[in-house]
Structures are given as structure tokens and as C-alpha cells.
């Protein structure tokens, strides 16, 4: 016998995931659209001190495209995962900033030694979210865990009593 009521997930947590093919990003970065793609995906804060291989693409040097493609595929996947983990927000690439946080919770200078996190902005108060980025072969993947503060007040959250 099927249950008469579907219980909602009891926590205001959402998970987003994405996978990105590195060779696809490599093809973009190898062409004339490379610098424009980087500026479209990375926020201003991420462009202040770009990694060497990303800076080379921005400067028109396509000699280090493979390293830049691996990095950019990871960032692209992380931002797409963040979009999916925050479905109640209308986010664009520049609303999600991937950064490092030190192990004691202190913000790093872009290339810190701590794990990556995403800073979510746009529309509401800024918020941090956990993210994990991984690379294997021709793919970069990312998972993001988001928290919905509006749903935290009530067990049923914004979906209503029936969880739908």
C-alpha cells in the first residue's frame, strides 16, 4: 500500500552538480572567442589576479590553452552546480565567485590552500556555499551544496504542507 502523504525533505538544503568537457572549453579558448568566454564566466574579483594560464589567454597567448581549459572547465562546472543548488535565486556567472577559504575559515587571496567555496550574490544577502571541483581525463565536475534561508524557518519550507 502506497503512503497517503509524501513527506518533504526535512532540511532547507539543495544539491547541484555539473560536468564539463575540457576539450569543448579548449576549443573555445583556442579561438578568437577565448578572452570573451573567460570574461563572461569569471567575475571581476576572479579576474583581478587571474592564474597565469588564464592571463595568457586574456593577453592573446594561446600557448597554455590546455592548462587554462582545465581550470576554466572546473570553474564553469562549479558555477553551473551553484545555479542548480540555489534554484530560488536568479543567478548569472558574475553572481557566483569561486574562492578559497583558509582552514580556519578565513578568506584567502584567490589561490589559498583551503578548499574552494562559492560566494553567492545578487538579489539577496551574500551567502557562502560548499563546492567540490574534480578533474579526470577530459572532464571537470563539480558539486555544490546550497542552503535556503527562507525555508529554514519552517519544516515544510516554501513548498507547502504536502511537500509538492
Terminal Cα span: 20 Å
Mean pLDDT: 85
- Strands ordered across the widest β-sheet: 1-5-4-3-2
Number of strands: 5
Q: Structural class of the helices, strands and pairings? A: alpha+beta
Low-confidence stretches: 154-164
- The CATH homology group name: 4'-phosphopantetheinyl transferase domain
CATH topology, which one?
Ribosomal Protein L22, Chain A
Pfam families: ACPS
Organism: Lasiosphaeria hispida
Keywords: Transferase
GO molecular function: holo-[acyl-carrier-protein] synthase activity; magnesium ion binding
SSE order and pairing:
Elements: E1 13-21, H1 22-30, H2 34-41, H3 44-48, H4 52-58, H5 65-85, E2 96-100, E3 116-120, E4 127-136, E5 139-147
Antiparallel strand pairs: 1-5, 2-3, 3-4, 4-5
Pfam family, one: ACPS
GO molecular function: holo-[acyl-carrier-protein] synthase activity; magnesium ion binding
Domain 4'-phosphopantetheinyl transferase: 15-144
Could you describe the 3D structure shown?
This is 4'-phosphopantetheinyl transferase superfamily. It comes from Lasiosphaeria hispida. It holds the Pfam family ACPS. With about 160 residues, this protein is an alpha+beta fold. The protein has one domain: Alpha-Beta Complex (Ribosomal Protein L22, Chain A). Helices cover about 30% and strands about 25% of the residues. It has 5 helices and 5 strands. It has a 5-stranded antiparallel beta sheet with strand order 1-5-4-3-2. A hairpin with a 6-residue loop joins strand 3 and strand 4. Helix 1 crosses helix 5 (about 65-85) and helix 4 packs across helix 5 (about 65-85). The longest helix is centred in the middle third of the chain and has 21 residues, at about 65-85. About 30% of the residues are buried. The model is unreliable at about 155-164 (pLDDT under 50).
Amino acid at each position: 500500500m502506497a503512503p497517503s502523504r509524501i513527506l518533504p525533505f526535512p532540511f532547507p538544503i539543495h544539491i547541484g552538480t555539473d560536468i564539463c568537457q575540457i576539450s569543448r572549453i579548449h576549443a573555445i579558448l583556442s579561438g578568437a572567442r577565448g578572452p570573451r568566454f573567460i570574461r563572461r564566466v569569471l567575475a571581476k574579483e576572479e579576474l583581478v589576479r587571474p592564474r597565469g594560464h588564464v592571463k595568457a589567454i586574456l593577453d592573446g597567448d594561446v600557448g597554455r590553452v590546455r592548462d587554462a581549459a582545465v581550470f576554466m572547465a572546473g570553474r564553469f562546472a562549479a558555477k553551473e552546480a551553484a545555479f542548480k543548488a540555489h534554484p530560488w535565486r536568479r543567478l548569472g556567472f558574475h553572481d557566483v565567485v569561486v574562492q578559497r577559504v583558509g582552514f580556519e575559515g578565513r578568506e584567502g587571496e584567490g589561490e589559498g590552500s583551503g578548499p574552494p567555496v562559492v560566494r553567492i550574490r545578487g538579489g539577496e544577502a551574500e551567502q557562502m556555499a560548499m563546492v567540490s571541483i574534480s578533474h579526470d581525463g577530459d572532464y571537470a565536475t563539480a558539486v555544490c551544496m546550497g542552503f535556503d534561508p527562507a525555508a529554514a524557518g519552517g519544516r515544510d519550507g516554501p513548498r507547502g504542507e504536502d511537500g509538492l
